[in-house]
Amino acid sequence: MSQSTTQSTTRAAYDAVVTVYAELVRDFLADLPLERAMLAAFAELVRTHDAGPVADLGCGPGQLTAHLHDLGLTTFGVDLSPAMIARARQDHPHLRFDEGTMTALEIGDGVLGGILAHFSTIHTPPAELPVVFAEFHRVLAPGGHLLLGFFAGDDPRPQEFDHKVTLAYRWSPDSLAELLRQAGFVEVGRLRREPREGERQFHQAHLLMRKPPQG
Ligand SMILES: C[S@@+](CC[C@H](N)C(=O)[O-])C[C@H]1O[C@@H](n2cnc3c(N)ncnc32)[C@H](O)[C@@H]1O
User: Fold this and answer.
1) If you measure from the C-alpha of residue 5 to the centroid of ligand 1, how many angstroms do you get, rounded to a whole number?
2) Between 33-49 and 63-70, two packed helices, what is the crossing angle to 10 degrees?
3) C-alpha 102 to ligand 1 mean position (Å)
4) Among the four 54, 99, 144, 206, which has the fewest Cβ within 10 Å?
């Protein structure tokens, strides 16, 4: 599938599930202390470095954009799906949400202090991820941080799976960290946790990366 076909499929799939999805994730952090800890660490690092606003890329209905705002960050969200953006604006009218794609961000070079990409790169075909990571690197200020959440596996090659919304990929944290290193990032730390009851039986992982101050 071409890049634009994959994105049209993903856009249509998320447009179609917006109401159900927004309800599902509305309070999802409430019983996820490890994720909250990673988000808090990310927010603290971004605040300390004070290099610019934070973009929640692939923000969906914006619940994490709002969480980062509540942690004291200047945030905005970007998503491929117009329905997700409309829902995010409705639920969080005090925040900014833009329609757009991570493969060609309408954001200037080096303007962001941080990027959150929470399970939003999971649908990107592996061969296209270097384009996305190059965009992340371009828009981050030197010293800026990236927090990337994804489904984890042990196979060093990415594994396709039938995610409930549309086709997705699991990555070994080492392989994904290596791809990010190739894009110019250095690793700060990572989280890998067991699936909880009721969740799909995959580990979930977060990589906290940084664009080097001279990068
Ligand atoms: C699994 S949802 C995650 C949403 C939100 N980050 C969360 O954690 O609830 C994936 C989101 O990424 C968005 N997305 C996928 N590919 C994208 C792209 N190339 N550019 C922008 N958004 C994208 C989808 O539209 C969808 O809203």
Assistant:
1) 16
2) 60
3) 9
4) 99
